[in-house]
Amino acid sequence: MPPAPALYGYPPVRIHPDDRDAALQHAPNAPFPTPQNSGHVQQPYAFSLQDHFNAMREETAARHHNHRTSDTSSSATSIAPLATGPPPSFRGVAHNTLALDGMMTPPPSEKAVAGEREYLNSPEEIHYMQVFVEEVGIWMDSLDKEKHFSRLIPYHSLKCPMLLNAFLACGVKHLTLTHPDCKDDKALHYYDTATTQLLRSLQNPDRNTAECATTAVVLNVYEIMSEKPGQRMRMNHIAGARALIRECGWDARSTGIGAACFWLNIGMEVLSCLAFNWQTSWDPDQWGLNLDFADKPEMGASGGGDEEEWVHRIFYIVARIANFRASIPKFQEASPHDEQIRLGNRLALWQELKRLCDRWNNACPRTMHPFGYLYPTHSRSKSAFPNVWLIKRAAIIGRLFYHTAQCILAQTNPMEPARASEEMRVLQLHHAHQVCGIVAHTRDRGIASVAIRSLAIASAVLTDPREQEEVLCILERIQTESGWGLGSVVGELKRGWGWGDRSPLAMFYEQDPQQHQQQQQQPLLQQPQQTTAGPVAGHSGSKVNPLSFADFSLPNHPYQNWYEPPNRTNGFAPQGLL
């Protein structure tokens, strides 16, 4: 897909990096363990706004809080303007506005309508949105029962230009990841446009806060998809999306789009914390989640609540376990007495988390347990892992989280370090086989983000060369389907397994028969000394969670020089959102 000289008739203007940095001073560098083979050149993002940032700042300084609808038409000719002012329900022909509708390719019949469409009628836009819905939205909705991002919010984006442009950016980005011949120009242009529209909207105290938060969440997904290993791009919407979610008052008690944005945003953070050994910036006990099951172990396997609610509960447990692991002290206390007290406190917390995991497993609905289970010796497939058949996506994700949590607990028992305890190693290996078996025998692309992190953590304990080879084949399959660059995950696994230049499977069969027999009989005793390496198991990387600064009450808050506090009389309900 060769890039056009000028995208949709808009000249491709680029901004100088210094101007760009001045425009967005709101998020620290943040490595995220997700799609990484972006086609972006390694340079700061260009926003196509070089000639307009100064004018926009002057406009802001002139009005401050006296924002007028008539002021919102952009002077930019290289981007689509955003119709701010009244909420979406008040936009339209009734005000006799003649602004463009804010789309990248506005339908000729609707150019006079301010910011709304009845439907898409551009072949390219339809194609990009189809890709988003079918390939990107499915994993964004992995924790959302109503599937807002793939089924509902696209309809609202027809009357919210910045949200539609953010969706289109993600759709085109997926194409560039899965089709190397596709260029990044269009994806970047959609991203630039949506970002500019969001910044302008954040200057309006009467803005629709729900639209802004949702757009920032989607733009953050685009940025995660655009990462490259070893060449981390500056993340412009990580902290911004979280700060806007908090501003809207969304948490685990929210419904609709608020719940969808909360769980997607918190989900990406926890997966990153697992990868980089961070503590979560939002205490899981402050999420507002219903945890009745923890106090009612007698609920039994037919426990109440729908499957998604139980997924949220095990995810809460995983987040707490991630915090427990990230808080492991590096040094012992100077006093033996103090060290014993510390170990006792750590052990009590570990036991509490273990009980939570076990109670979740005993109380969750029957539909979240395997419907079928075949040992490798009984399966017709050539897999080295058991065939674990779970029917619903929520069940698949819930079991992956459960077994991942158990793997980490086995690694972090304060009184029985994983390397010193045979019992803990056997427990790790059991749960690792369950994780690998679930992922190996499912083709649901909606679980990709969870599957990658679970595989990276669980398979670090594997010692059988055949199993290790199969894990790499599974990761290769996920990379082919999603376009996500998993080179760093694969590299860390190989180092943890002690691989050299050759495949261990080849070296395995080059051994003499006696060595071969010994390795078959004692696989656990040959476990590498370092079973948890790098970001695979979460023991390397920066200790600073970039979301620690995601609060507009802090002096270094996101969207510096653009953010204006909203008019509190508007409230924070998802105005007009489905």
UniProtKB/TrEMBL annotation:
Record's compositionally biased regions (Low complexity): 511-530
Gene Ontology CC annotation, any one: nucleus
Annotated region described as Disordered, given as residue ranges: 60-87, 511-542
MF (Gene Ontology): DNA-binding transcription factor activity; transcription cis-regulatory region binding
GO terms (BP aspect): positive regulation of transcription by RNA polymerase II
Originating organism: Verticillium longisporum
Ranges in a coiled coil: none
Name the UniProt record assigns to this protein: Transcription factor domain-containing protein
Entry keyword set: Nucleus
